[in-house]
Predict the structure.
Amino acid sequence: MGTGFPQADFRNTPHTAVVPFYLYAAVSLLAGSVLLFLSASLFTGHYFNPGSLAITHIMALGWGTMIILGASHQLVPVLTEKSLYSLRLAHLTFWLAACGIPLLVYGFYKMDMGWPAKWGGRLLLLAILVYVINLFRSLQHGKKMNVHAVYILTAALWLFITAFLGLTLVYNFTIPFLPQDILAYLPLHAHAGIIGWFLLLIIGVGSRLIPMFLISKYQQPRLLYVIYFLINGGLLFYQLSFLWLPAAPLLIPACLIGTGLFLFVFYCIQVFRQRIRKQVDEPMKISLLSVSMIVLPLLTVLVLSGRLLSGEHQLKTVQLYGFVIFFGWITALILGMTFKTLPFIIWNKVYHEKAGVEKTPNPNDLYNKKLFAVMALIYLAGFVLFSAGILLGMISLLQTGAVLLTGMAFLYCLNVYRVWKHKPV
Amino acid sequence: MNVISNHTMNATIALAALEQVIDPEIGLNVVDLGLIYQLDFDETEKIIYVTMTLTTQFCPMGDTLTAAVRRVLEKTFGERQVRVELCFDPPWTHERISEEGKRFLNQ
């Protein structure tokens, strides 16, 4: 006896290809926050210093990239409607990146651009290449690509470009071959990563997950394509004008990307307004807050691209720009999304055989909600104080902010540990 | 709810039992969510065929939900085998949510 409905080929990604990334990211957040406290005084000076480089890379790679890589192994099937191509490649990505990141961060912290930084960079580039191959092969089979798949694949290619540029800069430290000073190339590397990797990926994933969690009626793939072209157009203009039109005004790419961002915020507002599920839980609230936090780096970049500031103020704004991206926008999003995804992954593992037969807890009960609320408050206070410390050049504010952010990271790790070690009730 | 079946009485019993299977993310049962498309009862072979969907294709909870549906029906109907098939054509939309389900989500 058969039904009139076509059957679906269905295979989920197992937790082993996801959870190690989450654990690695949690430890990185704690390490990055402790390093922020130890290097707080450096945030009153120039942004190009060993401490800032080490913190930026531990936050961008160990925290942001690792958790996104892990989550994307779980989410690629949801976004692209195809199974993940290879679990072995997913594990290989983890081990290569897990070994490469500490080497690279150590190299920056000690300003040793010899073998630690070079091997760190090589391993990381290899990890990203493996990830891109896995993603590409996952998308290759079957139906046409949807807009979310286009975003995620483009983001992965930008990540590869970012890592390649980064490794080139590392080599240039010991064997100078680039025509200009290394600081001139830094914005190319940084923006390929921040906009090409993080922003595109977050929009691609967020535009799928936010309506999914809120059960929203709003669907607008055309708008998402417009955002995609605005952001990629702005980023390409920025990268190419560096090579061929150095005098081109920075406001052009800033406005293109800014328009894309505002349209994404508009998209999220529409999704929220047309949601069927009225109740919004705490992790979702903090994730939505992070969407509005996109405005902060955008404002700072508009100020910087207008070349309105000079000297000390310019340097402070650059410091603030980096801080609001890594400790603001990206961190807020991940803090929320961790407790929206990890409890479900663990719940699925622990209660797979019991659902429907025995009474099981709700996945949301796997993490401590009070701890989460305290973490969110400490985080916001630490973020505001540290930002104020950068703008005012006050070490006491920077240190207090860093202590609070370290506290936040500790509570985050505690809650992640609690979820990870959950035993059936 | 709009569930197709070849046996109205058994389908009513099955749907009542399936209200125990809750989508853990949404907190609503699979029946009120409109995830069940078809329930067919093969009386000769003693097999129950379930065709169901998920709110999102490749939802990470998919395996758990289909296994839970199978277990609940095996428990309810005793000796019969249960075969659960997933289907995404037509895809699930919010219009499949029952009035009871909409009230729950509006809380």
